[in-house]
Amino acid sequence: MAPKIFIDGEHGTTGLQIRQRLAERRDLELLSIPEAERRNAAMREDLLNSADIAILCLPDDASKEAAQMTAANNNVRLLDASTAFRVHPDWAYGFAEMDKEQADKIRSARHVSNPGCYPTGAVGLIRPLRAAGILPEAYPVSVNAVSGYTGGGKGLIAQMEDETREDHITAPNFLYGLSLSHKHVPEMKIHGLLARAPLFSPSVGRFPQGMIVQVPLFVEDLEGSQTKESIHAALVEHYAGQDIVEVVPLEQSASLARIDAVELVGKDTMKLFVFGSADGKHVNLVALLDNLGKGASGAAVQNMDLMLSA
């Protein structure tokens, strides 16, 4: 019997992309709720508890409500795409390549929290250097990023695309999170194994999908005698043996004049780059991904498949 999958919030941006990825699969049975009934609590609860895996594409409070609805049913497993449980100790963090053991943790977990798009890039760059003893725990990490506007959901999509709206955004690029208290910061700190919250500066560009995340480093403030080459080698070693995260060779990176934020649109992979100054004093770590691919829906399907392989 095919496992039953229910996407709670299938009509939102992330949910729609997950459903598109699963539409042609014959190894799954997709449960669905009509859009007109999406606020019908009784119908949602019934579908949640009928699923083998429920994928939650909801606001934080609604995800917490769904978790309560299924709390007594050990037969349903949850995969949450909201921020609600990303640092919860009882939920497996759904970044399979983060550590060698992480895929097994996801595979065996009843509750899995899908990472945020920005943290996928940031943690993907930071954690290997922490694990290798290169990046000090108390290093003052800065994370600068730009995302496609679909990361803001239907509301921001409408603001960017509908010119008739009073709140239509005409800017080609805008900075936000100006209070420096973005909801992704705790996730970056905890899963980046950092003692200090990173300084995170996000922005949005006038393109639907795509993302660049940057982590600049002062080499002299790292542990030991590090170079661009040793930092790159640590990333290569960390991600060896898998095909989702690619560490771009140094010579290839050195030949680039620019990085295009939309290069990986439609793909569920991530590329990591290491750039360095000529004097060796500065390094810039860069992650390139689709904010709705490895940054959201693609990661959710990857995690679902891991959970089904248990």
Could you characterize the architecture of this molecule?
Helices cover 32% and strands 21% of the residues. It is built from 10 helices and 13 strands. A 7-stranded mixed β-sheet has the order 8-9-7-10-13-12-11. Strand 11 (245-247), helix 9 (250-254) and strand 12 form a beta-alpha-beta unit. Helix 1 (13-22) packs across helix 10. The longest helix is centred in the last third of the chain and has 16 residues, at 293-308. 45% of the residues are buried.
In terms of topology, how is this protein built?
Blueprint: E1 4-8, H1 13-22, E2 29-31, H2 41-50, E3 53-56, H3 60-69, E4 77-80, E5 92-93, H4 102-108, E6 111-113, H5 117-131, E7 142-148, H6 153-161, E8 173-175, H7 185-191, E9 199-205, E10 211-218, H8 228-238, E11 245-247, H9 250-254, E12 270-276, E13 282-289, H10 293-308
Parallel strand pairs: 1-2, 1-3, 3-4, 4-6, 5-6, 7-9, 11-12
Antiparallel strand pairs: 7-10, 8-9, 10-13, 12-13
Helix pairs in contact: 1-10, 4-10, 5-7
